[in-house]
Amino acid sequence: MKHLKKGDQFVVACIDSPTSANAVIAAARHFAERLRDKQLMLMNVSPKEKAEWIKDYGIPYVAMQGDWVTAIEGLPTAFNAVLAVTAVDASAPRSSITNPNTLLRAFRRCKIAYLAVPKDTEAPKYQNTALTVDYQRESKEKLIWASYLARFLGTKLTIATPQYRDSGLRELQDNNLRYIDKVFPPLGITYNSERLDTTGERFRTNPDWHALDILHPDILVARATDPRATDPLDWIFGTPDRKLLSHPSHTPILFLNPRDDLYILCD
């Protein structure tokens, strides 16, 4: 590690090769500059040898031997990271962290938010943010991150609400929606509302996909799939978060893991 100061908070660009590095660094720099002047740091992890090419970017970096899962889990404690950024490339080999399946496995124990951007992204554009608010408790954490995007990046928010017939699910969803009225007005945050018709089976199981289809946002804030609650069919057809990474819009996805020890930026 070079040129890092104790006490700094970091946006970490997780790069495994120069091929996708520019897209990841551009997105990470965009967030670092706007999230109350966080510092930018590059990270590369290899099971064989430390990457020498990472020095060429002239940015503080960490290059280590090991595995991505362990390094990513330690981001908030070892490196004081508040956000991780990585590329996603459907054509990448399984050995690359940019492969959608490998990406989700590598970040499955991540304790901070992580942004997956298409590897060919040039200039970041985050003018419009979408998120769904459902009955799950992680909706509140998604709302917190959406508030950061509105306050610090100046993005316009659209909050999409799936419709439920079950009264218990509606009550839990209403609790999450009341959280908006509690948190957003004091911060001067406004948003648009969109009702999602989730009567179809596909939309019922993956409302985030439906939100991408109808809202066309520049970035989607989404909950990653809980590995403890996967459906057997997910092994055949793919988990909801895996499907989001293959959406034809190639929208950047800001993921939050369903964890009890998730770190949330509090600036």
Structural class: alpha/beta
Main β sheet profile: 10 strands, mixed
- How is the largest sheet built, in terms of strand order? 3-2-1-4-5-10-9-6-7-8
Helix proportion = 25-40%
Overall number of strands:
10
Overall outline: globular
Radius of gyration using CA atoms only = 18 Å
Q: What's the pLDDT, averaged over the residues? A: 88
Q: Regions with pLDDT < 50 over 5+ consecutive residues?
A: none
SSE series: EHEEHHEHEEHEHEHHEHHE
Strand content: 15-25%
In whole angstroms, the N-to-C terminal distance is: 25 Å
Number of helices: 10
Topology, please?
Layout: E1 10-14, H1 18-34, E2 39-46, E3 61-65, H2 68-73, H3 75-78, E4 81-88, H4 100-106, E5 113-118, E6 128-132, H5 138-152, E7 156-162, H6 167-187, E8 191-196, H7 201-205, H8 207-215, E9 219-223, H9 234-237, H10 240-245, E10 253-256
Parallel strand pairs: 1-2, 1-4, 2-3, 4-5, 6-7, 6-9, 7-8, 9-10
Antiparallel strand pairs: 5-10
Helix pairs in contact: 5-6
Describe the structure.
The structure is a single chain. The chain is of the alpha/beta class and 267 residues long. The protein has ten helices and ten strands. The protein has a ten-stranded mixed beta sheet, with helices on both faces. Helix 5 (138-152) packs parallel to helix 6 (167-187). The radius of gyration is 18 Å and the shape is globular. The chain starts with 9 loop residues before the first strand and ends in an 11-residue tail after the last strand. The mean pLDDT is 88.
